[in-house]
Specification:
The complex is a heterodimer of chains A (about 325) and B (about 350). In chain A, strands 1-4 form a two-stranded antiparallel sheet. A two-stranded antiparallel sheet of chain A has the order 2-3. Chain A has helices at about 5-10, 20-35, 35-70, 75-90, 95-100, 100-130, 140-160, 185-210, 210-220, 225-230, 235-260, 265-280, 285-305, 310-325, and strands spanning about 165, 175-180, 185, 260. Helix content of chain A is about 75%, strand content about 5%. Chain A has about 325 residues and is mainly alpha-helical. Residues about 1-5 of chain A have low confidence and may be disordered. Chain A is globular and about 60 Å long. Helices cover about 75% and strands about 5% of the residues of chain B. In chain B, a hairpin with a 2-residue loop joins strand 2 and strand 3 (about 170-175). In chain B, helix 3 (about 35-60) packs parallel to helix 8 (about 175-200), helix 13 (about 260-275) crosses helix 14 and helix 14 (about 280-310) crosses helix 17. The model of chain B has no long low-confidence stretch (mean pLDDT about 85). The chains are: A mainly alpha (about 325), B mainly alpha (about 350). The interface of A and B includes residues 71 and 139 of A.
Chain lengths: ~325, ~350
């Protein structure tokens, strides 16, 4: 019996399709309330960009949790760190951002993203080695220690960069909007959408098509078995944690440019949103995290348009509804 | 010592420290005259009670909640809005406090049933989100809560600074004096009640559930029931602390009653003071509030010195606004090296 036959003989896990359709359902339900198609399309496109940014920040967190049961309550600090690193690139090279050449604009952005990835990844490595290693498997201490770590990083950021917000603008080529007939889309959101999609596709390919991805997925399913097969799951985990921190930094750059400012408090605010996304998606699931991000962004945008007062708590309501329907999130990871 | 539920602070260093703090707070109007000192003493008292109620969750039940300050806020808003809407009166205070306590317990019950069934981490995440939503609601529903500005209100005349009846040892016996002792006395009673709870059979079961939920369940204890009841008791105590604080401040708003920085403060107080000891909250609160109000001037001077020496980064790190940095470091060290905090370290030295 060849290997492929064995694969065919294994029963495939049943994929439930309904959770994957929830963002679509939400969009279709919201459409009649919003009315005109152009407004609806504008809102939807805008919220997709927001969703991709949130996904970028949240995916590393959920993967690290799935693998090692480590939930980083200091994840927000990496987001703020990325945003501040972006200011270090954007302020000295402001001329590149103002120049009409698209090449220089993109180079500036690429440089900022790269710097944020490197710095956040490096700090993530130190964070994991110094703070998290001694408390593997102890949830209470993990929560406390990562909060302590985030307090320290946040205060260091204040000490290094000052307590005021630092204004930040996207490069010149991405400031105005595209319009397709009645539908408007800010160019910057389009860029964020593309970057987020690239990261999502890259992650899915990495997880499903490479040896490392196979090991990571196996580690999420059953850590002991991967260890028993002779792989050092701790090393793998450092990689996943660093990647998560780097993605948080990258998301921080995107978010800071989107908001037009960098500030250490943005980490804490986004952390709430990210937790909601991760809970909705199912702790540990990347696909769930993707759906959760889209769902949260869509609901927040529609609610912001239809009932601004409700917008800020709409996400909590969405979380409660999802949990009442599926208590472990849209796509729960088995064994949890 | 029955009043301490047979759980007196053990070891002479801890006993001495507790007596010093308690005596200092009990005699604060006489020992430390001045409005600022009395404010500091009141804040220590309230934070000690809030910290003790948080310790019931964190230290005894092993539950990490980020919504604890929300219950503090519910208590504050209960009394505050009642006094604002119905005018000053003792009945109104009682009504507002009762409403706050009731709402706090109902919300705690709901949150507990909803999210205590699964892992500790899940509860922590959900409470973080709920506390955030509540904070937003309190700021948004400005026709009820006064929004970001909050509400200022009048308290019964006996508690107002203008109400003077004389002097004792050169200390004015006025409304502030009575208000302080009202806060202090009720806080002491509630602290002793919490001490009773953690030393009751219920408290022992909580610790068993914390150490090994499966074994506790196998022994026939309903872990959900115990955790939810612990959450309700802790929330009611937090709401009471909030009510006392609102009476003292004559004001209620998001910054003084709901802010997430209070939540961080409480966490730091309990962890540095000592989790699972209850006395840790008192020691931690005393240290924290005194450091917040007096140590900042000291590190400010150090910061200036560093700036004069041409070390701008060190000057920034020692800036008075950055004192949370040093507390954060202490917090991390405490989690690693002293899980039972200062109280635990002091207890090691038996007499």
């Amino acid at each position: 019996m060849s290997f492929s036959d064995m694969g065919a003989a294994l029963p495939r896990a049943r994929r439930e399709i309904l959770p994957a359709l929830t963002p679509l359902i939400v969009a279709l339900v919201a459409w009649p309330f919003i009315g005109s198609f152009s407004t609806f399309a504008t809102l939807t496109l805008a919220s997709l960009a927001m969703g991709m940014m949130i996904f970028t920040m949240a995916s590393g967190l959920t993967l690290a949790f799935g693998m090692m049961d480590v939930l980083n309550f200091g994840h927000g600090a990496f987001i703020a760190l990325g945003a501040y690193v972006a200011t270090l690139v954007f302020l000295p090279l402001a001329a590149w951002g103002e120049s009409p050449s698209l090449g220089l604009n993109l180079a500036l952005l690429g440089l900022a993203l790269l710097a944020a990835i490197v710095v956040a990844g490096a700090v993530g490595f130190a964070f994991e080695r110094v703070l998290i290693v001694p408390v593997y498997g102890q949830h209470l201490k993990q929560i406390l220690i990562t909060i302590g770590g985030s307090i320290v990083i946040e205060q260091l950021l204040y000490a290094l960069f000052g307590p005021a917000e630092i204004p930040l603008q996207p490069p010149a080529a991405f400031r105005d909007s595209l319009s397709l007939g009645q539908v408007a889309l800010e160019k910057y959101r389009l860029l964020a959408l593309v970057v987020g999609l690239v990261i999502f596709v890259g992650q899915i390919l990495l997880l499903n098509r490479t040896k490392i991805g196979l090991l990571i997925r196996a580690g999420v399913e059953n850590r002991e078995m991967v260890e028993a097969l002779g792989y050092r799951i701790e090393r793998l985990f450092i990689g996943v944690f660093m990647a998560g921190a780097a993605l948080a930094g990258l998301g921080g750059v995107l978010w800071a440019l989107y908001r037009g400012q960098a500030h250490a408090s943005m980490g804490g605010e986004l952390l709430v949103l990210i937790f909601i996304v991760v809970i909705i998606g199912g702790l540990g699931s990347v696909e769930g995290c993707f759906l959760g991000s889209l769902l949260v962004a869509l609901i927040a945008t529609y609610a912001g348009f239809l009932a601004p007062k409700l917008a800020l708590i709409s996400n909590i309501l969405a979380m409660v509804v999802v949990l009442l329907w599926r208590p472990r999130g849209l796509y729960p990871v088995s064994g949890r | 010592m029955n009043i301490l539920s047979h759980d007196a602070p053990r070891g002479w260093p801890l006993r001495t420290l507790m007596i010093l703090v308690t005596a200092g707070l009990a005699l604060a109007p006489f020992l430390f005259p001045g409005a600022k000192a009395l404010n500091v003493a009141e804040k220590i008292t309230v934070m000690a009670l809030l910290g003790a109620s948080y310790d019931l969750l964190l230290g005894y039940a092993g539950i990490v909640s980020f919504a604890h300050v929300m219950f503090f806020g519910i208590g504050s808003y209960g009394v505050g809005l009642a006094l604002y809407g119905l005018g000053p009166g003792w009945g109104v205070i009682g009504l507002g406090a009762a409403a706050g306590l009731f709402v706090a317990m109902v919300v705690a019950f709901g949150v507990g049933l909803f999210s205590l069934r699964v892992q500790a981490i899940f509860f922590a995440m959900v409470t973080l989100a709920i506390a955030y939503a509540f904070n937003v609601l309190a700021s948004q529903l400005s026709f009820i809560t006064g929004g970001e500005d909050g509400r200022s209100f009048q308290i019964p005349e006996v508690l107002r600074p203008g109400f003077k009846i004389g002097e004792v040892f050169g200390v004015a016996i006025n409304g502030r004096f009575f208000a302080y002792y009202l806060v202090f006395a009720l806080a002491v009673v509630l602290f002793l009640a919490l001490l009773r709870v953690v030393n009751s059979p219920f408290g022992r079961v909580l610790q068993a559930v914390r150490e090994n939920p499966f074994r506790a369940e196998a022994l026939g204890f309903r872990t959900i029931f115990h955790r939810t009841l612990a959450t309700c008791i802790a929330s009611a105590a937090a709401a009471a602390a909030g009510a006392l604080n609102a009476i003292w401040l004559k004001y209620v708003g998001p910054d003084t009653a709901l802010s997430s920085s209070i939540q961080i403060d409480v966490l730091v107080i309990v962890v540095i003071g000592g989790m699972g000891t209850l006395y840790g909250a008192v020691i931690g609160a005393a240290l924290f509030v005194i450091a917040e109000n007096y140590l900042q001037a000291l590190i400010g001077r150090l910061s200036q010195g560093a700036g004069d020496l041409g070390l701008p980064l060190l000057a920034q790190l020692l800036h008075p606004d950055r004192w949370l940095l040093w507390l954060g470091l202490m917090f991390i060290l405490a989690v690693y090296f002293a899980p039972t905090g200062i109280v635990g370290k002091l207890r090691e030295r038996r007499d």
